[in-house]
Amino acid sequence: MCCFFSENRIDGMLHTFSVTVIMPNLNYGVPQDVPQRVPQDVPQDDLDAKILALIKKDNKISTEKLGMALGVSYKTIRRHIKAMGNVHYIGRGFSGHWEIHDKS
Q: How large is the angle between the packed helices 74-84 and 63-70, nearest 10 degrees?
């Protein structure tokens, strides 16, 4: 609460109010952890070959840089690498590197 003073007398009182509005959630059934603004028109079978080519070119490249180079999210890159099964990251963080094993 705040008061206005003029010539040693109170002219008025100013009250502050707080209003809380509760809005219904209309996003039922919609996954909330999906990245936004990610292109969906990248052919998936071609993506694996492009990932392998970039890793062969630079075996220390990050999944974030792979995603930026290919126009997809880093989560998509991780999902594809996991599905391939022959690409493994050896080490931790920036000191590690990618290894590609032949499918036998």
A: 110
